[in-house]
Design goal:
Largest sheet: 10 strands, mixed
Shape: globular
Radius of gyration: 22 Å
Number of domains: 2
Helix content: 25-40%
Oligomer: single chain
CATH architecture of the largest domain: Alpha-Beta Barrel
CATH superfamily of the largest domain: Aldolase class I
CATH class of the largest domain: Alpha Beta
Bound molecules: S-adenosyl-L-homocysteine, iron/sulfur cluster
Strand order of the largest sheet: 3-4-5-6-9-10-11-12-13-14
Length: about 375
């Protein structure tokens, strides 16, 4: 299967151009057609010689994604279900924020980390996305706005869709370099956030990449017992190991870290737990933020429910009393299955149900008992 040209950094496009005995300015032209003019085919790159267009078609596809479903929410959130070349499904979400358009991208088909509250973790990882498939999500959302002539630009990216980004490390790094390239989409590194469930050794690698991208760590519990029971990754990288890696990241990059904390009613949202969380993060108080996130109910995980507003308020107050930088995060697109992995898992479920119904109907027609 041909790779998508979106998966190449500008340097890699230049290398390809030189390998094909062309002058390096051709790479700049290709890059601008891709990310400034945002063409839909190589044929539209009208200042390239026909032989080079043929060669591009020979070696690459442009867009590897097919749009299956688009849902728009009342608050402006748009959810896209895309089909990959091998028929697998992924989802991408566009959120309208007061500071601009923010896209949440998927990095893997399914996720092997298997957190107990997450819809994505219900389906084991089937494969990593290629760098081209990750970049293409941004391009398709941008083109969706281009087509409506809304003159709006995707200005922020959160790598918080399906999958564990640091478990698809190289492709995610290439993706970051492509979208950040100042001659292309030029999305500022400080406007990009990568979220991880806490792969400690990869956090240390990430610190040494020299990119100014923000790091978010999904913490969700202030001690090992609780964290291991809701996120099994904690058995591999317990809190002490995780925090050593985070401190190393802060020292190496001089950047702050955001902690994400989903509020699960009567599971992790007690005032004592808020105190434990404040104590745990004390050493890096000035260099960390905590986002308190409303839980998005997932039908398969009915052991969890959303914390009551009173419990959230008490938790927040205790953190504030300890001088913690924290916010209660706003929600987007709750009317359109916007929880991480939900549109995909619900569509797969519907597809399975439709398939089952078809088989049953066919059997009934053929007189076979179900
Ligand atoms: N795998 C990475 C990034 C994708 S998940 C990670 O875990 O950080 C992005 C964020 O969504 C994580 O903080 C995750 O814990 C959170 N999340 C998962 N399921 C959720 C749900 N049902 N409700 C609210 N947040 C959820
Ligand atoms: Fe994977 Fe993140 Fe979901 Fe955990 S929360 S299962 S790491 S996508």
């Amino acid at each position: 299967m041909k790779a998508s040209i979106y998966g190449l950094t500008r340097q890699q496009v230049t290398d390809w151009v030189l390998e094909n005995n062309q002058k390096s300015f051709r790479a700049t032209q290709i890059w601008e057609w891709l990310y400034r003019n945002r063409v839909a085919s190589f044929e539209e790159m009208t200042n390239l010689p026909k032989s080079l267009i043929d060669k591009l078609n020979e070696d690459f596809v442009l867009n590897p994604l097919k749009q299956r479903i688009v849902q728009e929410s009342k608050d402006g959130t748009v959810k896209y279900l895309f089909e990959l070349p091998d028929g697998m499904l992924i989802e991408t979400v566009l959120m309208r924020q007061h500071y601009g358009l923010s896209v949440c991208v998927t990095t893997q088909v399914g996720c092997n980390i298997g957190c107990t509250f997450c819809a994505s973790g219900l389906i084991p990882k089937q494969r990593d996305l290629t760098s081209g498939e990750i970049v293409a999500q941004i391009m398709l959302v941008q083109k969706y706005f281009d087509e409506r002539q809304q003159n709006e630009r995707v200005s922020h990216i959160v790598v918080m869709g399906i999958g564990e980004p640091l478990d698809n490390y190289d492709n995610v790094m290439t993706f970051l370099r492509v979208v950040n390239d100042d001659k292309g989409l030029a999305i500022g590194a400080r406007h990009i956030t990568v979220s991880t469930s806490g792969l400690a050794p990869k956090i240390r690698d990430f610190a040494r990449e020299g990119v100014q991208v923000n790091l978010a760590v999904s913490l969700h519990a202030p001690n090992n017992d609780l964290r291991s029971s809701i996120m099994r990754i904690n058995r591999k990288f317990p809190i002490e190991v995780l925090f050593e890696a985070i401190e190393d990241y802060i020292q190496t990059t001089n950047r702050r870290v955001t902690f994400e904390y989903i509020m699960l009613n009567e599971v992790n949202d007690g005032v004592e737990q808020a105190q434990e969380l404040a104590d745990l993060t004390k050493k890096i108080r000035k260099l960390s933020y905590i986002n308190l996130i409303p839980y998005n109910p997932v039908s398969e995980h009915d052991q969890y429910s959303r914390s009551t507003p009173e419990r959230v308020a008490a938790f927040y107050d205790r953190l504030k009393k300890n001088g913690v930088n924290c916010v209660v995060r706003q929600e987007h697109g709750t009317d359109i299955d916007a929880a991480c992995g939900q549109l995909r898992s619900n569509t797969l479920k519907k597809d399975r149900e439709t398939a089952r119904a078809r088989i049953a109907a066919a059997k009934a027609k053929a007189g076979i008992k179900a």
